[in-house]
Amino acid sequence: MRPVAALFGQRARLRWLHLILGGALFMPFWMVGSLVVAPLLDGGGIFTGSLGVQWGAYAAGLPLAAVTALFPLARPMSVAAARALCGVPADRFADGPARGRAAKARTAGWFSLHLGCGALVSGATLALPPFAVSVMALPFSPALRESELGRLWGLDRPGWIWAGLPAGLLMLLTLAAVAAAAGALLARQAPRLLGPSPADRLAAAERRAAEAESRNRLARELHDSVGHALSAVTLQAGAARRVLDGDGADLEFVREALTAIEETTRRTVGELDWVLGLLRDEGQAAAAGPGPGLDALEALVRGAGPRVALTVAGDLDPVSEALSREAYRIVQEGLTNAARHAGGEPVAVRLDARTEELEITMENPLPERPPVARPHGGRGLRGVGERARLLGGTVEAGPVDGVWRLAVRIPR
Phosphoprotein among the record's keywords (predicted)? Predict the structure, then answer.
């Protein structure tokens, strides 16, 4: 069964179809070659029956096909056909137009090989089966046996009358074997000639890095906006509950806490819409705005509670949009970190824009009891470091003289 599958199985049939496609693509080049060769050899037209003209047109058409393969669309079209019909794993092919001389030369080599082999197999596929059927019909037709074909095969002699059956069958099997061998040759050469070059691999690696950075950015945005909102709301709600549970409830404090919860949730819904816009469509999110920046910093601090103090030195207006957005997120994550781990201690936030660097410093006294750490650690400070490094800045975080300090410096 294996020999039969190798000659007539689905893979063999698809590769045969791929070769016939190559023969069809070669026809325009063959006709142009005939226009050039026919007048030089016998002065006949392009449809002359001379074998010299046919082979001359074939030889002249192959270089024309190779030149055509230098155009940008040649490799994507060849890769699409080979992926569908050659039975080669899709990941072994390059994507996009060929870049560089070596890649273009390999594409030209593949195009010439595909069209050259395809033209020969297509011609044999068109001509040989009718001839083989005629040979196989010779024993059953006296007229055919007495024709020139019968005399050529010697079937007009006694004892040879049935020789046409195996001869015609052998022709068909030979055609199938040649088509299978040519298809296997193309399948072996496809990854080498249409596979990724070093430039293609570098471009693919850059695309993967850009996609990973985009995913990391979305993760940071979700973590900072939603995480901060939940921490701030939890802190304010807990404080309001404790005041209501105590003697002589301070209704004004509870009102301020509820107002802070309302502002925080309303602001976070807008930020969440912006982040979801990034997931749906980068252009739509960009049209909706770049996200919150330092102009929204006072509202952020106000929503974090009365025990957070903000100090700004210098003018923040000249700060670029990208730096303003990242600085806002850094402060937001610092406040989230303090809400989770500072145990209600006061938090001091300072921004200094008087030098060539924007300095962000956040400090809070260390609580008497160490905070309960999450089993696998948090992602907040890691995200702060990623944001700062993307803009060429530095981050320092840790306990200093009984105070937890987060210091970020980013060039303006």
Answer: yes
